[in-house]
Specification:
alpha/beta; 6-stranded mixed beta sheet; 34% helix
């Protein structure tokens, strides 16, 4: 079956501000995120991409724009199922503030039990994302052959949940996975099992260095600088 390249959107204004963006409108790439997006065509230059699929949220569309400009014939599709988790009443709030919420402990330790106030459950988030991947795998293979490579641009928690599924991990373990902004994760699907061949690849080892509290991190419930 197809090989899927998962791209997390570039660093956003919400990442910089330490906000849980969710589907909050007006969240765009910051200056660094735009630079990360500009580098994406070069990083993917060796790959004959069959198609690109994007979350409908602006930060993902912005991340893909330089790639689309460099490859004007690359088909672009939008799929709401790989859009960010619907965090409901938590959307737009500061992660530092949310860390005091009793539910946050369950988000980190037992996410399969969590439904966000006014939002969706983390189980539903994973289910829709995995369904989307499986359907796109079948479509891409049918149209372009079993060796085809395609790309999805999505969000941290979505990508982590897809990786957990590929590894056969329970959703309660997905918080052990981390993907930086504009990182590349590759999963090769076969008829018997998926193979994780890249995880959170940025080509940059700087994120492995110790970070000062409050520096730019991963503004998702899954963690990052200063997050639980």
């Amino acid at each position: 079956m197809a090989t899927l390249i998962l791209v997390r959107h570039g660093r956003s204004t919400a990442n910089t501000a330490g906000l849980l963006a969710g589907w909050t409108p007006g969240v765009t790439l910051d200056e660094r995120g735009a630079s990360q997006a500009a580098a994406l065509p070069g990083r993917l230059a060796e790959l004959p991409l069959a198609a690109a699929v994007s979350s409908p949220l602006e930060r993902c569309r912005q991340t893909l724009q330089p790639l689309l400009d460099a490859r004007p014939g690359l088909p672009l599709h939008t799929d709401e199922r790989i859009g960010e988790c619907h965090y409901g009443d938590w959307s737009g709030r500061k992660l530092a503030e949310l860390s005091d919420e009793p539910l946050m402990a369950a988000v980190q330790q037992h996410p399969s039990s969590v439904t966000f106030p006014g939002g969706e459950s983390m189980r539903a988030m994973q289910a829709r994302a995995v369904d989307a991947v499986r359907e796109w795998n079948a479509r891409i293979e049918a149209e372009h052959g079993e060796d085809a490579v395609y790309l999805m641009c999505s969000h941290g928690d979505i990508i982590k949940s897809v990786v957990a599924d590929a590894l056969g991990l329970h959703l309660d373990l997905f918080q052990r996975i981390h993907v930086d902004p504009c990182s590349l994760t590759a999963i090769r699907y076969t008829g018997l099992r998926p193979f994780l061949v890249r995880l959170g690849d940025t080509g940059d080892l700087a994120p492995l260095a110790p970070r000062e509290s409050g520096t730019d991190g991963d503004a998702a419930v899954g963690g990052g600088a200063g997050a639980p």
